[in-house]
Design a protein that fits this description.
This protein is α+β, with helices and mostly antiparallel strands. The chain has two domains: about 80 residues, Elongation Factor Tu (Ef-tu), domain 3; about 90 residues, Elongation Factor Tu (Ef-tu), domain 3 (Beta Barrel), CATH 2.40.30. Helix content is about 15%, strand content about 40%. It contains four helices and twelve strands; from the N terminus they run βββββαβββαβββαβα. It has a six-stranded antiparallel β-barrel. Strands 7-8-11-10-9-12 form a six-stranded antiparallel β-barrel. A hairpin with a 6-residue loop joins strand 10 and strand 11. The N and C termini lie far apart (about 40 Å).
């Protein structure tokens, strides 16, 4: 589990294809930046741009992870050198500064607006249809590993033409300490919905099924 509070911005230094051809994944060598690795052991989890990955090697201030083809197909930002948001797995002794995050990307959003508003920035993202129903005013969402609060949700159109956009306010600190500063209109981002929303949907679906059976 994670909190969505980015601990450091690292750098993917190299991307090496794993044996197995097109269906194989890649190995990433990552400079951890200011992220302390002294307490990180092989097999530990680190969230990279919001995707939970397992440490398979560690050397000084760098670590290595293997990313499967399935993970590459479901995420962005893990297939080329560049900056990435990093967070080590949560321990029970730490504060939950963001919200409970699993590190499992639910879908890819598209940036539709990213503009300064006063001292902050407004980020508008178009969400995939399959996760639009989980977005709520003042609810939580993870964007590239960053825990954020939804300020507005707008459903445009209906039926098969329905498009959902949500707006987020980014304070200067968030811009400064994460890779979100590099976003541009049209860029894709990793999204993870609030964990509680998953369970609410499951409970409601079972309740509805039980009622029908009765």
């Amino acid at each position: 589990m994670f909190t969505g509070i980015v601990a450091a911005v690292g750098q993917i230094k190299s991307v090496t294809p794993l044996p197995g051809g097109h269906d194989a994944g890649v190995r990433l060598d990552i400079d951890a930046g200011s992220l302390p690795l002294a307490d990180v052991a092989l097999g530990d989890s680190i969230a990279i741009n919001g995707a939970c990955m397992t440490v398979v090697e560690k050397t000084g201030g760098s670590f290595t992870v293997d990313v499967s083809r399935e993970s590459l197909n479901c995420t962005v930002g893990l297939d080329a050198p560049g900056e990435v948001n990093l967070e080590k797995a949560l321990t029970l002794a730490e504060r939950l500064g963001g919200h409970l995050v699993s590190g499992h990307v639910d879908g890819l959003g598209v940036v539709r607006k990213f503009e300064p508003v006063g001292e902050s920035w407004e980020l508008v993202i178009e969400a995939p249809r399959n996760i639009a129903k989980y977005l709520a005013f003042k609810g939580s969402i993870v964007v590239n590993g960053v825990s954020l609060t939804v300020n507005r949700v707008q459903d445009i159109g209906s039926g098969a033409d329905l498009v959902c956009q949500f707006s987020i306010n980014l304070i200067p600190h968030t811009i400064q300490v994460t890779t979100l500063k590099h976003l541009t209109v049209g860029a894709r981002v990793n999204l993870e919905i609030d964990l509680i929303a998953r369970y609410v949907e499951r409970m409601l679906s079972l309740t509805s099924t039980d009622e029908v059976k009765r």
